[in-house]
Write a structure and sequence with these properties.
With 121 residues, this protein is mostly beta strands. It has no helices and 12 strands.
Length: 121
C-alpha cells in the first residue's frame, strides 16, 4: 500500500524541541519537492517548509530559523526538526510528497495521516 506514515508528535513545553518523521511505504519519493504543512484548530492548513530534490529549502516566515526540513533518500524518509517551539506552533502537522509506487511505477501526490504537536506555555 502506498502511503506516508508520520511519527514524532507530542506534548512539549515552550522552548523545547521535537522531530517529526514521514516515511514512504510501498513507494519511493519522486524527484519533486516535498514538504510539511500544519493546521491549527479553527484555521486553514498552512505551508511550513519544503525541500527540493537537490536539497534547497524554503520556510514560512513564522518558522524560519527554528525549524529544519531534511530528507533521506536511502530511508525514503523526510524530517522536520522543530526547535524553540512556541504555543503558536500547536497544530496537526502533515507531510506531503509525490510518491512512485514500487508496484506499478505510477507517481501521485500523497498526504500523511497527520501528527499532533502541542506546545504548552
Amino acid at each position: 500500500q502506498v502511503r506516508l506514515v508520520e511519527s514524532g508528535g507530542g506534548l512539549v513545553q515552550a522552548g523545547g524541541s521535537l522531530r517529526l518523521s514521514c516515511a514512504a511505504s510501498g513507494s519511493t519519493f519522486s524527484r519533486n519537492a516535498i514538504g510539511w504543512y500544519r493546521q491549527a484548530p479553527g484555521q486553514q492548513r498552512e505551508w511550513v517548509a519544503t525541500i527540493s530534490s537537490g536539497g534547497s529549502t524554503n520556510y514560512a516566515d513564522s518558522v524560519k530559523g527554528r525549524f529544519t526540513i531534511s530528507r533521506d533518500y536511502a530511508k525514503n524518509t523526510m524530517y522536520l526538526q522543530m526547535n524553540s517551539l512556541e504555543p503558536e506552533d500547536t497544530a496537526v502537522y502533515y507531510c506531503k510528497a509525490s510518491l512512485i509506487s514500487v508496484v506499478n511505477g505510477i507517481p501521485a501526490w500523497y498526504w500523511g495521516q497527520g501528527t499532533q504537536v502541542t506546545v504548552s506555555s
